[in-house]
Amino acid sequence: MNVVEKRLSCDHSEKYLVRLADGHAVETLYMVDEARRLTFNSTVCISSQVGCHMGCRFCATGRQGFIRNLTAQEIIGQVDLCNRTRKNAKQTPLEAVVFAGMGEPLRNYDQVKAAVLELRSRLGLCQFELATVGIVPKIYEMIEDFQGSDISIRLNLSLHASTDVQRRQIIPMTQEYGVEEIIQAAAAYAAVFNTKARIRYMLFHGFNNTEGDAARLTTLLQGKPLKLILSQYNENNIEGLTPANRLEVLDFYNTMKTTVEAEIFHNFGSDIQGGCGQLKQTVAV
Ligand code: SF4
Fold first, then answer.
1. Is 282 a member of any domain?
2. What predicted TM-score, i.e. pTM, was given to this entire model?
3. 244 lies in which domain range?
4. Which residue in the list 5, 14, 27, 263 is annotated as catalytic?
5. Bridge partners of residue 99, in order along the sequence
6. 59 an active-site residue?
7. Would you say residue 107 lies in a domain?
8. In a domain? residue 236
9. Has 27 been annotated as catalytic?
């Protein structure tokens, strides 16, 4: 595998288009954040699948459909390529690896787990984050697998809706697990690891930013070890979805912060199509 294209963002993020041995491609994003808005200064966001089953309407990867799972070696290979390619590799060691690139990592959990274990043993990395739409049995499997380990995997649950009906409109393949069930699993995970799981909520104008949404979110999240992370939608020109503007995001944040712990997410690399929901395979096979 090799890097066939590198793009630089004005926020110093670097995005790599990585071609795999069979000609498919995935994208990898390196983020440097001295202000530690991501908690870590030096973080690589990697892909776990070529394409994705889940079909999230707002996501460029989801619109491509699923092609195949990555192997553990292809997952680790992105970290190695990032360390060989990024311009500050000598001065700034990687602090964390985030599974939030292309693919649903819990749909390829065995390979993701093998990659985590090898990154821990070979590179000494023990800080991870995993973004999921909420594959409930796999969340409980992660508890079993990593309880008592020195590896920390922060759970980042992509909720984006306050009801099951609403969620199915934007994340169609998650109908197996309801909103309450996935929130319960995230809270159980966070309680075991004595941390807070992050609940990602991307705001769409007139769709999920109403007073009713705020009230339902409060009921779902209040009193649990969860932190609400609000973000603005990275425009992908999808019919029927319009990003909430900055003022609407701020309004929703001001409402939510009175009842639950909340923050507004800083999007990295959105000017190079490297932000959440913007990664995709962009070379022909
Ligand atoms: S947001 Fe994540 S889970 Fe949804 S389609 Fe995109 S890559 Fe898949």
1. no
2. 0.90
3. 2-272
4. 27
5. 46, 130
6. no
7. yes
8. yes
9. yes
Q: Whose CA is nearest to atom 5 of ligand 1?
A: 62
**Atom 4, ligand 1: residue with shortest CA distance:** 56
Q: From ligand 1's centre to the CA of 208, what distance in Å?
A: 18
pLDDT by residue, tens only, the chain of 285 residues: 999 999 988 888 899 999 999 999 999 999 987 666 667 789 999 999 999 988 888 887 877 889 999 999 999 999 999 999 988 878 889 999 999 999 999 999 999 999 999 999 999 999 999 999 999 999 999 999 999 999 999 999 999 999 999 999 889 877 789 999 999 999 999 999 999 999 999 999 999 999 999 999 999 999 999 999 999 886 656 778 888 999 999 999 999 999 999 999 876 666 666 665 666 655 544
Structural domain includes residue 86:
yes
The set of protein residues with a Cβ atom below 6 angstroms from ligand 1 is: 52, 54-56, 59, 61-62, 102-104, 133, 277
Structural domains of the chain, count: 1
Assign residue 161 the CATH number of its domain.
3.20.20.70
